[in-house]
Amino acid sequence: MRLPFSSTAVVSALLTGFAAHGQIADYPSDKVAGIPVNYTEALVGTYTLPDPLVLANGKPVRDVKTWNEKRRPEILRLFEENEYGRMPGRPAGMSFDVFDKGTPALDGKAIRRQVTVFFSKDKNGPKMDLLLYLPAGAQKPVPVLLNIWFTANSLSVDDPGIKPGEIWNAREKKRVPAAGGRAFGRLLVAKFLAEGIGVATVYYGDIDPDFLGGVPFGVRQLYLKPGQTEPAPDEWGAISAWAWGLSRALDYLETDKGVDAKKVAVTGVSRLGKTVIWAGAHDPRFGMVIASCGGEGGAALSRRNYGETIAHLVEPTRYPYQFAANYAKYANHVDQLPVDAHMLVALMAPRPVLLQTGNTDKWSDPKGEFLAAVAAGPVYRLFGKEDLGTDQVPRAGQPILHAIGYLMHEGGHGMVPSDWDVYLQFMKMHFQP
């Protein structure tokens, strides 16, 4: 996982990307936070992956019914208890305020909607702003690409009509006006709109903050039991909270008559790449996942000793708050983790999933993501879907686009313009055949 982003790490999406504009360093050091890092393939070691098609009682899974009714719930529970943490369901007190009901925008190419999602009856409590663009003149509900992003909506799209947002100042643990900052670039949505696809975005900090000690300031504090100051060891970390927030965004999209809610693809990068694949795995309503550079704790195999490891993630000064506290038990015992990333990918079956990475992003282990996609193949084949069709890592710039997709660009962490062209191709391929 990357260090927190800064203004020197310029990022743009839907047109330009991390690797195109000052990508974040790929950690060439042999130690991070005092923990050794391996970048030598010969030193990866040997490992055995848990079989996604064998039940906990040792019996094989030979049909879709057994997968859906027995094995999938088993795997989901294991991820909840040991990695991401259990999350609550839809809150009874949630409500939507559609304060921008459909304004022409983006030079007439779009109809803009803005919605505040209140996570509880208390309108002063945690809430999330959702920004949605639909193609102008659409005659029927359209697919939507739902993006979760590192900055406020008002800094995500070049549109003066967006409600001014706030972002977190992690050092002072408070929200501040987002005006003036453009550290993460703009979401240029016109290309998707031209192909009949809507684009929506939310700021992850509206759901839960991204820093140590953030529980009292985000949605997780709403669910603390009497006497609790932190979630229980098997309860949600920040990644589960952000994924939960994406499901609440989908709750709204299901009510919007301009949206085909069965064709919502969710996308995010880096720690938000981890978030979106967990969101898609946990909530089968998402029609597709496009996960960018999730790496360790996302789509890269944990049992491969390469780049970032569980030990790096849960080191006390780094990112333990993003996971269930139980995850730390496997920092030095990854072989005892009852799941691995291939099982996370498999939880998407039979829905399409695209793993995107960069060939120089060694910290995130692009080969580990490819091997996870390969190992998820048997579950997709169980559904009669096409797997990757190869166990050889493709060259950079040569995407594999089946029900499972893999895309590795020439470059580092994040997205480049050609990646977004492939995202669009993948969505059209599966949502507009």
Count the DSSP helices.
Answer: 8
What structural class should be given to the helix and strand makeup? alpha/beta
- The tally of strands reads 14
Q: How much helix is in the residues?
A: 10-25%
Topology as a string of helices (H) and strands (E): EEHEEEEEEHEHEHEHHEHEEH
How big is the Rg? 20 Å
The biggest sheet, with number of strands, parallel, antiparallel or mixed sense and barrel status, is: 10 strands, mixed
Report the sheet-strand fraction: 15-25%
Which stretches are low in confidence, meaning pLDDT under 50 for 5 or more residues running?
A: 2-25
Q: Ends: how far apart?
A: 35 Å
Mean pLDDT, to the nearest integer, reads 92
For the largest sheet, list the strands in their spatial order. Answer: 3-4-5-9-6-10-11-12-14-13
Globular, elongated, flat, extended or rod-shaped: what is the shape?
A: globular
